[in-house]
Structure prediction request, 297 residues.
Amino acid sequence: MAPADVDAILASVLLLIGFELIDTGRGSWIFHINGARTIIEKLVASAVATETTLSPLRRWLMSNCLVGGLSTTTMSLLQDAEGNHCSSFPAALLPIMQAGAQLLKMNDDSTSPDTLADSRRYGALHLLHAAKSFDPAVWAINLQPRSPADDLFHRTEIASAHKGAVCVYLSRIILALWPSTVLPDDLEALAAETIIHLSCMQPGDALFTATAWPAFVAGLEIADLTNRAWVVRRFQDLWELEPWGLTREALGALTTIWDGRKNEDATKSRNNEVYEQQRNWNWVEKLKSIGTDWLVA
Prediction:
């Protein structure tokens, strides 16, 4: 296949992903990513075998196709996307998050002996430690040569928000699989801290759309009504800026989760004090039960 044909195919896949996200926002865009990943892995293998260099255009197309889907051969391409993709998702956090999601899938697909389960629990805690060790400031500094603007402060804040959201997500996975685990962080406080980082980005800022994913995760975790109202406003602002179906789906999922949490809790909040039962309500399981877990990973 001619190089121009490959680039045209990748560009078409990227457009299809965008159309799906804009239209309904439901999970069908994942099929396009999976198809692109198959093509890209073959291209990478061919480039390595023939010692050829990928063109800047092809690297850009490949990296933007792969932000939503990982493989062991594409991390350098994901790093290419850090500076220009609308999510500004630190590449170092993506495989950690995906590995956590894989633990959930493995738990569904198999019945493991206790020794293997213990090994997976250790692996999950190691993933959480790796996420907590990520340094947003160092990442933002290293990204500056590849960033289209002088945006060190905002990059640091958005990376801090992504770090917090990934830690919340991994923590909820750990609690879903091993409920008695003692975690190093208070998840409500971590979600609130994530919102503080996100608050630095306003609708006119170039990285405003990069606040969507961490805002969604923080919204899933947060019980405080003031912070929930902030999350709703953030998604309303995102909708005004980019009326994508994905944004509508995310806000709808949040509303469903919040309503379900309110209905299932036997205890109520009083004077902004949230009881232990409500704090232990696990949205990872609920997202899966309503078929919207793809919104997270």
About this structure: Residues 168 and 279 are 13 Å apart (CA to CA). Confidence is low (pLDDT under 50) at residues 70-74, 274-278.
